[in-house]
Every structure is written in structure tokens, then in C-alpha cells.
Design goal:
Number of helices: 4
Order of helices and strands: HHHH
Structural class: mainly alpha
Length: about 80
């Protein structure tokens, strides 16, 4: 029995790639994720990649909103 036989199905996932995670997180944030991509994410993706991507995406979104507010306050 080799190491791959001992791993659970979630540990055997190969991942979806950086740009696919970015696309999936962005689409999920605005609610337009396609069924095909969602199924790919659940079958091939690693949960930690989407968790980290979601946290980074949320932080970037909050930073952009903060920068816009600061700009509007400075120009008013």
C-alpha cells in the first residue's frame, strides 16, 4: 500500500491553480459562479486555497473601499 492509498479524498486533490482560485473567489463574491466552475472547485480544489483567497479578496475589497472614502473626503 503506497502513501496515496492512505490519504483521504480531500488530500488527494490536485488543486485548481492560482488564476482559477482568483476567478472563483471573485465570481463567488458577486454571486455569479457558474455550476461548472463550482463543481470543479468542489471536486478538484483544496479548501485552504479558497479560504485564503476569500480572506485576501475581502481584505483587498475593504482596502479599495477605504481608499475611495479617503479620496472623497480629501476632495470634498
Amino acid at each position: 500500500m503506497n502513501d496515496s492509498d492512505k490519504q483521504s479524498p480531500s488530500e488527494q486533490r490536485k488543486g485548481t491553480g492560482f488564476w482559477n482560485v482568483v476567478q472563483s473567489v471573485g465570481a463567488a463574491m458577486i454571486g455569479v459562479q457558474s455550476r461548472k466552475n463550482r463543481e470543479r472547485d468542489f471536486t478538484e480544489g483544496k479548501p485552504i486555497h479558497f479560504i485564503v483567497g476569500g480572506l485576501i479578496g475581502t481584505a483587498v475589497f475593504m482596502l479599495i473601499v477605504w481608499l475611495i472614502v479617503q479620496y472623497l473626503l480629501a476632495t470634498s
